[in-house]
Amino acid sequence: MNETIRAVMGWRVQTIGALAAGLWLSLASGTASALMFPLPPEDTNVIGEVQVIAADEEDTLLSLGRRYGIGYEEMRRANPEVDVWLPGEGTQVTIPSRFILPEAAREGIVINLAEMRLYYYPGAESDNTGMVETYPISVGRMDWSTPLGKSQITEKTENPYWFPPESILTERREQGRPLPEAVPPGPDNPLGRHKLRLDIPGGAYLIHGTNEPRGIGMRVTHGCIRMFPEDVESLYERLPSGSSVEIVNQPVKAGWLDDQLLVEVHPILPPEAENAFDNVEPPSIMEAVLAVARVLEQGDVRVDHERLAGAVNSADGLPGAVSRSNTHQIALDEAKLPTLLY
């Protein structure tokens, strides 16, 4: 194991080109809250930048998140000392709008469950070809996890009925909150006004809107992908049936910004967790080491293992540099290597 880490930490690579500047799209609440950026070259995968804004008196972290295209957990982890409901006028609030693209084909929709975020790569027929859009989402709870793998959109429905599956009907009966077998379109329909069906076996997995937008950015669904109403409407109008969808689970992503190696780490639910509201924990350091190893050949740096361990331990979702330039020769401390494994 030590030989693997030593090889990863000492690997030298070539410098990459500069990253294109990011572009904000539709920041106002009530319009699509996507962030849209120029798609970087294949050997570059960091987009956007972190911003710090001053809250107004009426702001909450949830309202600011919706305005800037950021989900609940993303906003909370980026602002651990800020009150979710009463930030206070003039309070400095971090908008975590820098992202490392998931390790997946840059086409159609890519969903990373670990960060509760959807990426959309418009095709050649789109006005936004050469760009990448990203949206906050809600994903499945521990007991209703969202399946991984490649899929596609097979059906699009506006103002859908909701036919709760038997499993949900049973759950709600046991809770003393029975549901009808069919919920018509309207404000009580949890699918919102738009749904996109995926061809995952069983046919019950959807990308859809919501009548409870406060839950966007949480693990609260029964396996579907839930979006802000304005966000799913934007995709609904542009995505044809047959569009590809790839669902991945990557709590650690690594990528390049200029000559710096960055990692982005998200917390995970431990295997023993019984529901989505149990305490989360950092992913393993080996998962981070392997993520770094997969991109090291694209740059000319050495890895600072203390920074990497710190990024894993904090798991705040903010991309941070874990590299040292070659002007600083790094001698890996054998005594410290074992700490990376725990």
TrEMBL record:
One of its GO terms (biological process) is cell wall organization. This is ErfK/YbiS/YcfS/YnhG protein. Belongs to the YkuD family. PANTHER family: L,D-TRANSPEPTIDASE, L,D-TRANSPEPTIDASE ERFK_SRFK-RELATED. Signal peptide: none annotated. GO terms for molecular function: glycosyltransferase activity; peptidoglycan L,D-transpeptidase activity. The active site is at H208, C224. The keyword Glycosyltransferase applies. Residues 107-248 form the L,D-TPase catalytic domain. GO terms for cellular component: extracellular region. Pathway: Cell wall biogenesis; peptidoglycan biosynthesis. InterPro entries: LD-transpeptidase, LD_TPept_cat_dom, LysM, Transpep_catalytic_dom. The keyword Transferase applies. Keywords: Cell shape, Cell wall biogenesis/degradation, Glycosyltransferase, Hydrolase, Peptidoglycan synthesis, Transferase.
